[in-house]
Amino acid sequence: MATTYFSKRNLHFLLHEVFKAEELTKYEYFSAHDRETFNLVLDSATYIADTLMHPHLKEVDRNQPELKNGQVTVHPKIKEYLKAMGEAGLIGAGFSFDNGGQQLPKMINSCVSFILMAANNGMMYTGLTSGAAHLITSFGTPELSEAYVPNLLTGIWQGTMALTEPQAGSSLSDVTTSATPQPDGSYKIKGQKVFISAGDHDAAENIIHLMLARIDGAPKGTKGISLFVVPKYRPDGQDNFVDNDVTSTGVYHKMGQKGVPTMHLTMGSNDNTIGYLVGQPHQGLPYMFQMMNEARIGVGMTATAIATAAYYAALEYARERPQSRRLNQKNLLDSPQTPIINHPDVRRMLLFQKAVTEGSLSLLLEAARLYDISEVAEGEEKENAFLLLDLLMPVAKSYPSEMGVQSVSQSVQTFGGYGFTEDFPVEQLYRDIRITPIYEGTTGIQAQDLLGRKMTMKGGKAPKLLFAEIGKTIADASTHDDLKPYADQLTAELKRIQEVMSSLMPYVQQGDIERYLSDATLFLELFGVVIIAWQWLKQAVVAKQALLTQNPEGDELAFYEGKIHTMKFFFHYEVPKTLGLAVRLKDTEVLTIVTEKELAL
Amino acid sequence: MATTYFSKRNLHFLLHEVFKAEELTKYEYFSAHDRETFNLVLDSATYIADTLMHPHLKEVDRNQPELKNGQVTVHPKIKEYLKAMGEAGLIGAGFSFDNGGQQLPKMINSCVSFILMAANNGMMYTGLTSGAAHLITSFGTPELSEAYVPNLLTGIWQGTMALTEPQAGSSLSDVTTSATPQPDGSYKIKGQKVFISAGDHDAAENIIHLMLARIDGAPKGTKGISLFVVPKYRPDGQDNFVDNDVTSTGVYHKMGQKGVPTMHLTMGSNDNTIGYLVGQPHQGLPYMFQMMNEARIGVGMTATAIATAAYYAALEYARERPQSRRLNQKNLLDSPQTPIINHPDVRRMLLFQKAVTEGSLSLLLEAARLYDISEVAEGEEKENAFLLLDLLMPVAKSYPSEMGVQSVSQSVQTFGGYGFTEDFPVEQLYRDIRITPIYEGTTGIQAQDLLGRKMTMKGGKAPKLLFAEIGKTIADASTHDDLKPYADQLTAELKRIQEVMSSLMPYVQQGDIERYLSDATLFLELFGVVIIAWQWLKQAVVAKQALLTQNPEGDELAFYEGKIHTMKFFFHYEVPKTLGLAVRLKDTEVLTIVTEKELAL
């Protein structure tokens, strides 16, 4: 078992030196906090991660949840973990004091998720609970909050997001689960949901589903979907809870993230499932989408955390494993073998992992910061933060997950044959991370969101804001001679994006959205590389300042120099990928749009 | 379970139309064969694959081999399979009539492997046996052949390749297993071997290890390694077999390819392991390396087969799974959902899978053809075939495996959430294929072989020969107006490779091999894209000819047009990747070579 699974030093660097988390406390909402309370929360999460999660990484993978007699049983350690999380106040950390929370910024909560998921992503339960409770506090009545939120935040109950149906995955407009109004104001729910994470298990006393359904007679498509609270056990009005006819039809056996049960649920088998409307009828999808940024930051963070744990495992192995001699000393057979970290190809793989994981973490904290400002600021500041966040989200969800998959693959490769065995954690992490480019909107969906909506909304205001932000980093970097070439390269990359957009916009004007979006995934990839390049330059500027002003030594010197080195690695090895992507994106040959004639694929 | 796992039509296209397998029968050695006997062998393999392998794909994955009381038990179907393969003559198909084989070309045997591994790569046993037997017939005495080969080729015994040791993976010069001469000419063997595929199991009556060891007093390094036959049970000279003190120390539990046991073996625990020298002392590594091309074609083919099976599963799903409407018809909520194959992004993923898998298969058959010619031709023809094969091998091993991993990842993505579940075969195939960039020489090792040896050997004769071969395809393609642009692009790509080589050669002249090879893996990637582009252009020329001369209709028309379409896809989507790779390869900034100062990675 690898002993290190994340770097506290790097987390503090990003949180305090790059993104200056404490500045958030100038807003009234966060004013009860300071740097110290932030760090205490991270220490508390680290303690839980170290003691209750990381030691069980393999165990929860090897003993996946099973459905027997209608009940799902999960690893006994899950219950202990949920209790500890509730007691530490970490499930409700982001909720207001009024709602029983700690009123902590998303930036801090995201770091908590990062630590927990790096320790053991198979224990992915509490983020779902927070998300479900957040929907209730945001859109439900005070009575609904009172009835459900306290037990959710203490970890006694489990929350879920119940969107997907067998015939409606990416296409939520095709949701068919029905809700029939009852005289008492509640609804009878009937239908099926699939892929519901933590959708049933015995570590919680009740499961509270935040479920999309269609009220009888509702409009078709996305405009007729409503949001309901559908508990596993419902209150009978006399302080008792009765079975709510939510049947566990099946538990999926999966490639990874085996610790958390992914459920197929059936509502209303006995015509006795009751749901409680959250907010207004037919507003379910807008409500869900207001939570989407939060959920997608969560997925990006999970991917980053998994890839980070794999990177540290690979790094530890590469430092210790001797194999062969250095290439210019091949004939020195009497000399001992060298640790593989000294081979350029292994070092390249490690730098790639460091570049991907620390670049992703930086972007996600940037997104979390924007999230916080969009919540607590006012006027233009709030609006701009929201627009920027909206634009960055498809990248912040997909880059960490897509590139995280590649990164863990390089972790496996660093181990050679041992990486393929269960003797080391990387084979499990390789399986675990593969879901992240799929859930909460596949990469293809993120790409359509980015190019089809975010780049053009409000007359293209979001990319204008973003380019201005990136411009600030470029200006900062340009003041240092050794960073200036990279600042210039980033300027050239922004121009490249604009050229690509110019070549694509005519399709929009022609109303040919299918053509406009046909290579959207490649645009997302190109955009992602540039965004991460920005994040690396930003980190390099801070590191450079520290080197100039703090005169660091030893580990600190190596840390800051490592940041600048990895920035260079990203620009020299990853950024050139934009060349090929731009060529394809500006290419006029259509090869993926169906015509009348069916090709033999 | 997907019903199709490979395309017989495509196999016949490559074998007969592109590579004209029957032309091999003009050589005396293959003269007993014709197109019909070739096809009969493929049909025989298909029958075994359909009936004894594919139906057990999941089963052998879910019931991995276990070591109990010193004996490894495998799935009972394995024994049935080995028997059938022996009876069909498929284990020995490539051996000479004298050695009890069918004297079939490697081209045909490679197609057999392709079919078998596409059906169920977890039953990867017989290729190992053929390889082991081939070492004995090639370098051993007639007595050794007589004693071991017949039972290997009938599938009653299992053969293995026992190279790797705990401290010697990529670095075979550090092998320490010892061989002490005995008065009777045999050797006492002592040491440990790890990662020995099929290294022990109960489906074979005996296990015959072809093992590398160092005779007492042998020179250090690669020049002191000898090859031995080390059986699990050895003949006692009186028609009995006795235990040869080869202990199964452990069976690795792995991420994939779970059907085949990967063993940790200990020789000489009781000082009673006897080995029989194969060929001359200290020639073990040259012998092994003479078999390496064969073994690496096998790995490339396994990777291609796995990715092909995943592609057909994804294709079937994409044709059947309705989800959402086409992008220009988003508002037609009353219309039924469209099969996802009609979404450009899904079609892009499928074309990528088709381009990678059929491109890889084409390259591997090219390599197999060269292998055959290098075996049976004479003089310059033989020598040139051998040089070309040697040059292509690093690509033929690594492109199918590296890009196969990517391809299966896109198969998973095509399925969305279902791809992550055990309900469909792609999650297993995703796990299975991940070993292929590791075994038989990791991608990093292949890259060093390509750039460090193959590009420069004999004064660079091999790339000259290759470029001349590619030139022929370019000339053929240039005669067709619609293929000419691609021919021109391929010419430009060859120039790009030459430019990269020109920028790297000074490092060789300076004797700085570490710098020369520091980005060898990227060179391999660049070279691989160009080689596969060549294979696609070659296929497109043949398809174009068929369209012009055969006037095909229906499925045949679609097949040939699909070939040209996929060639275009490869040139428009994959070839542009060379731009970024070349930029990095010509870049003078050094970022991966260790200097005095340790960076904080």
Structure description:
- The structure is a homodimer of 601-residue chains.
- Chain A is an alpha+beta fold and 601 residues long.
- Chain A has a domain at 460-601.
- Helix content of chain A is 55%, strand content 11%.
- Chain A contains 18 helices and 12 strands.
- Chain A has helices at residues 8-18, 35-53, 57-62, 77-87, 106-120, 126-139, 142-153, 284-320, 344-376, 379-415, 426-433, 443-454, 457-478, 484-509, 513-516, 520-550, 554-574, 577-586, and strands at 66-68, 71-73, 157-162, 178-181, 187-197, 206-215, 226-231, 233-235, 241-243, 246-252, 262-267, 274-277.
- In chain A, a hairpin with a 5-residue loop joins strand 8 (233-235) and strand 9.
Question: How are the SSEs ordered, and which strands pair?
Answer:
The structure is a homodimer of 601-residue chains.
Chain A: H1 8-18, H2 35-53, H3 57-62, E1 66-68, E2 71-73, H4 77-87, H5 106-120, H6 126-139, H7 142-153, E3 157-162, E4 178-181, E5 187-197, E6 206-215, E7 226-231, E8 233-235, E9 241-243, E10 246-252, E11 262-267, E12 274-277, H8 284-320, H9 344-376, H10 379-415, H11 426-433, H12 443-454, H13 457-478, H14 484-509, H15 513-516, H16 520-550, H17 554-574, H18 577-586
Parallel strand pairs in A: 3-6, 4-6
Antiparallel strand pairs in A: 1-2, 4-5, 5-11, 5-12, 6-7, 7-12, 8-9, 10-11
Helix pairs in contact in A: 2-4, 2-5, 5-8, 5-9, 6-7, 6-8, 8-9, 8-10, 8-11, 9-10, 9-16, 9-17, 10-11, 10-12, 10-13, 10-16, 12-16, 13-14, 13-16, 14-16, 14-18, 16-17, 16-18
